[in-house]
UniProtKB/TrEMBL annotation:
Domain of life assignment: Bacteria
Gene Ontology terms: cellular component: membrane
Keywords associated with the record: Membrane, Transmembrane, Transmembrane helix
Membrane topology: Multi-pass membrane protein
Organism: Duganella violaceipulchra
Name of protein: APC family permease
Length: 447
């Protein structure tokens, strides 16, 4: 047991490679396959365009994350950035809003895992499969970040191989007469299908698939030797790899989906594979998604939300019990128990309405992104040595891109986000009156 763990600090055990593979495990290289039905339906048949716009939006945001992680490493990620640059209230709102995304994404993944298990055991109950998936991922994460990192590495390697095989099958099917019959630009631009609001709504879904960089930033306090520069490097590496995979995959699959009948967006990839490779190919993918993707993909999600809760509990923006660290495994176990329980409840509640969950899942992350860009502008606005591209132009472009997507979100998504914001504001006001003001663990830096 390390001194750090004894003192309630997180265990420093991660290097650059660990961070990259952790981020890839969070985003999941197979995401464009499992999300194909949702993105195709919402975008009106332009999934490649939606993923490209998502990558552009996320590039500016990831750059701001990399800058802030080097300047202010914090397990709380956007919560820590906003708290140090704009004060406790801004930090609380930023952390509270990003928590919405961090709680919904695991719930969405649990539900998708249950769908895969239904493909394998048609008479099984979806709620039972959700509980089983949650129990399996929680058990692995309980033993600390080192174990999670090793599982993530193996999962990513196998996922990359699977994507290569499936994309190859899709290309072969295309030139065999399926879909559009060739690799056309139809999934990228088609005047007859283009509708700005629909594409932006789909882009908000795609943004969720790129969130590995945000998860990487939550591990800034667990890097070996405290070398936080590798965190920014890992963030940009993660984005480069995922952007390439997502755009290429959505291009190929988007062509194959032309004319394909969609009954349920959650099962499109299974039906598509069954049509080009037979029922066995569909079953093989279902087993793969459960064993290699489902459980390992949720691991970093549980880790990320627990770190944000840990940071907010440590600062007493949320109950301080959330900052408790396991004496042996060095993880914020109370925060992990609380977040997993909430995500489980959401997954069970929305298990038969996964499409609805996919639509409003990114609103919290987008608001969090706004605070990251504002943190860069606020912090480096006080520095004489600020760099115009990284500290001014990038965050301004990022703010514009995020705002455009936000105002074009589905009305339900905005309603859910608004209700969550009001709940957070209510908690803040109640807690300020009923308890002692939160302890400020951050040191304001003066240039």
């Amino acid at each position: 047991m390390s001194d750090a763990t004894q003192n309630g600090k997180l265990k420093r055990a991660l290097g650059y490679g660990d961070l990259v593979f952790y981020g890839l495990a969070y985003t999941a290289p197979v995401a464009p396959l499992t999300m194909a039905g949702f993105v195709w339906t919402v975008s009106g048949g332009l999934p490649m365009l939606a993923y490209l716009l998502g990558a552009l939006c996320v590039y500016f945001t990831a750059s701001s994350y990399a800058v802030m992680t080097s300047a202010m490493p914090s397990a709380g990620s956007v919560y820590g950035f906003a708290s140090q640059t704009m004060g406790r209230f801004a930090g609380f709102i930023a952390g509270w809003m990003i928590l919405l995304d961090y709680l919904l994404v695991p719930a969405f993944t649990y539900a998708l895992c249950a769908v895969s298990l239904e493909e394998l055991v048609p008479h099984g109950d979806r709620a039972t499969w959700i509980v089983a998936t949650v129990a399996a991922t929680f058990a692995v994460n309980w033993f600390g970040i080192s174990v999670t990192s090793r599982v993530s590495f193996l999962s990513v390697v196998l996922q990359l191989a699977a994507v290569l095989v499936i994309v190859g099958m899709c290309v072969f099917a295309l030139f065999g007469g399926h879909g559009s019959g060739a690799l056309t630009l139809a999934p990228l631009i088609d005047a007859g299908k283009f509708h700005g609001a629909s594409v932006l709504a789909a882009t908000s879904i795609c943004v969720m698939s790129y969130l590995g960089f945000d998860a990487v930033s939550t591990l800034a306090e667990e890097v070996k030797d405290g070398n936080t520069r590798v965190v920014g490097k890992a963030i940009m590496t993660n984005l480069a790899i995922t952007s390439g995979i997502f755009v290429l995959t959505s291009w190929v699959v988007g062509n194959l989906l032309v004319g394909f009948p969609i009954q349920d967006p959650a099962t499109v990839i299974y039906e598509l594979l069954a049509s080009i490779g037979g029922h066995k190919a569909s079953l093989a993918l279902a087993w793969f998604l459960i064993l290699v993707v489902g459980v390992p993909n949720v691991l970093p999600m549980q880790v990320g939300v627990a770190r944000v809760l840990f940071a907010m509990g440590r600062d007493r923006s949320l109950p301080s019990v959330l900052a408790k660290v396991h004496r042996r495994h060095g993880n914020p176990y109370v925060a992990m128990i609380v977040s997993t329980t909430i995500s489980l409840g959401i997954a069970l509640l929305m298990r038969n309405n996964i499409s609805d969950l996919a639509i409003f899942i990114s609103v919290g992350a987008l608001v969090g992104f706004l605070f990251v860009h504002l943190s860069v502008l606020t912090h480096f606005g006080r520095h004489d040595g600020r760099r115009w591209w990284a500290h001014v132009i990038v965050p301004l472009c990022g703010l514009s891109a995020v705002l455009i997507i936000l105002i074009n979100l589905n009305a339900t998504a905005l309603t859910v986000g608004g209700c969550w914001f009001v709940a957070g504001l209510g908690y803040w006001l109640f807690s300020r009156r009923s308890q002692e003001a939160p302890r400020d663990v951050f040191q304001q830096t003066n240039p």
